Amino acid sequence: MTLPNAQWPKLPLEQWQETYETLHLWSQIVGKIRLAQMPWINHSWHVPFYVTVRGLTTSPIPYGAGAFEIAFDFHRHELHVTTAEGEQRSLALEPMSVADFYRKIMQVLGELPAHRDAHLAGPRRNSQPYPALP
Asked: Would you say 105 and 33 are in contact if contact means Cβ atoms under 8 Å apart?
């Protein structure tokens, strides 16, 4: 279906380059949490993000007898971690370092029965490696 006069907004990269780079690194952390929890499927097909009307989500991630989901809500500038039991914690998506984001999301996960250390050493496949995360 084609909408008449529908146009994508202009998104000049130079105006949001820093946001793009930060979101890329934050999403790597969330992706590695999912990677650590999911059984392996060829080509990492088990760790994609899914587009929602509000942002991106991991979809349910199995954990023990339950599951949890991590969702970026770009409308409210929040990250939500929700368990299958209905518990939810949120983290404000505001300017912070990648290390601070890592610490905060690990703290949020630690408050829920869905925590497992993802053993993140830092973003990979990057020509300019970032310092190891705590």
From this structure: yes
* H helices, E strands: number in the chain: 2, 6
Residues 6+ apart with CB under 8 A from 104: 91, 96
Question: Which residue in the block uniquely carries the two structure tokens 């890592």?
Answer: 102
C-alpha to C-alpha distance for 63 and 9, rounded to whole angstroms: 39
Residue 70 tokens read as 């991590």
pTM above 0.70, yes or no: yes
Do 68 and 84 form a contact (C-beta atoms < 8 A)?
A: yes
Contacts of 28 (CB under 8 A, 6+ apart): 123
C-alpha–C-alpha distance, residues 122 and 130, integer Å = 7
Shortest CA distance to 105 belongs to which of 120, 121, 91?
A: 91
Residue type, 74: F
For residue 115, give the 3-state DSSP assignment: coil
The model's pLDDT over 42-57, given as tens digits with 9 standing for 90+, comes to 777 778 899 999 999 9
Cα separation, 119 vs 37, in Å, equals 11
